[in-house]
Amino acid sequence: MMHVNAVLVAVTTALLACPPWRIYAEERRLTVNMTIVKRGSALGAFCLDGSLPAYHLHRGFGAGARNWLLQFEGGGWCNDVKSCSDRASTRRGSTRYMTKWEVFSGILSNNASLNPDFYNWNRVKLRYCDGASFAGDAVVNNGTSLLYFRGQKIWEAIILDLLPKGLGQARKALLSGCSAGGLASFLHCNSFTNYLPSNTSVKCLSDAGFFLDERDITLNHTMRYFVKDLVTLQGVEKNLDEKCTKNSIYPELCFFPQYALKFITTPFFILNSAYDVYQFHHILVPASADPHGHWNRCKLNPAACNPEQLNTLQEYRRDMIVAMGLFYKYSRSGGIFLNSCFAHCQSESQDTWFGDDSPRVHNKTIAEAVGDWYFSRRVTKEIDCPYPCDTTCHNLIPSAQAALEDTKS
């Protein structure tokens, strides 16, 4: 008996010594079932292949029962008929191929120790199946079938489906998103406010959605031309901010957050890496700009970058800070968390959102920074020192492959 008690004491001591969020992360993996928007067809809301749009809703409870967090799913874009046709037969273009159950973690977690500020809110994941950040409105015949570019209608249909389920009586609301979904947060922030009661506290968050209008290493505007084709093909321009398009010689540029941001009147938070992996690989050094693969080793490991390549990366970081400059200096309701991790999307993964070894800027985790901003506990505009000074970045480049897969799918 004494031996058994000794073992129990040892096990208990070991468990208590472990970081509690790690234990919970193993034991309480939350999965949420899909809801198909059946009214979508009447509203003209279809995924690329004509399937109906969908979302996942996990109900709030207690003090958060009337608060709502909506999270746009990310997953790249398509900007020509072939790539969109290919995409239509994948989970990025059809709810038929999507997983019916989604894991809710990070900002979507229902565990107070993993997500202290939003765990008891109604949390919704909007599935992404249009290829234009929920902003297109067109139909194209690809020769064998129709391609539905109905992202704007999908956004509207999901909101209309959620309003009678409690969103219409929300006290607090946060519109968020990751990657292409983070860009959707910029595009739809103002309109989200219009759907909700005037006394609702509405704010928006973009995670890895601040895509720069930047020249690549060969000085070509690869991303700008990509966006122009996307906007034209999918009928996006009419859904961009009207004040922005009227003030721009090239209206399609309003798809870029750096141009749309000053027209957003709703309080906004920008969460991004200054060395965003997707932007590094597809805007700064796309395959077309590096046909001989001189950047391949650097792309996989920043420690393998030569001095010239590092300088190019530091210039990209400086350009991103400049693009956020007016927002950083003058926005009283805005927030920023710009760290120096080679990452892409940090709010949905528990290890980057809130944990004992999560990335920090000025000793503040992402979850703490977002929570402080949303609840006005303190001003949150955190900009990290340049790479390689941040020792909390344990996640260098791991999401590079995921970003590449999103582009292909």
Describe this structure in words.
Keywords: Cell wall, Cell wall biogenesis/degradation, Hydrolase, Secreted, Signal. Residues 1-25 form the signal peptide. Its EC number is 3.1.1.-. Its main location: secreted. Pfam families: PAE. The protein is α/β, with parallel strands linked by helices and 409 residues long. It has a single domain, classed as 3-Layer(aba) Sandwich (Rossmann fold). Helix content is 35%, strand content 16%. The strands form three sheets. The chain has a ten-stranded mixed beta sheet with strand order 4-1-2-5-3-8-9-10-11-14, with helices on both faces. The model is unreliable at 1-27 and 399-409 (pLDDT under 50).
How many DSSP H or I helices? Answer: 16
Structural class of the secondary elements?
A: alpha/beta
As residue ranges, the low-confidence spans are 1-27, 399-409
The helicity comes to: 25-40%
- Total strands: the figure is 14
CATH superfamily: Alpha/Beta hydrolase fold, catalytic domain
| CATH secondary-structure class | Alpha Beta
The name CATH uses for the topology is Rossmann fold
**Helix-strand string:** HHEHEEHEEEEHEHEHHHEHHHHEHEEHEH
The main sheet orders its strands as: 4-1-2-5-3-8-9-10-11-14
Major β-sheet annotation: 10 strands, mixed
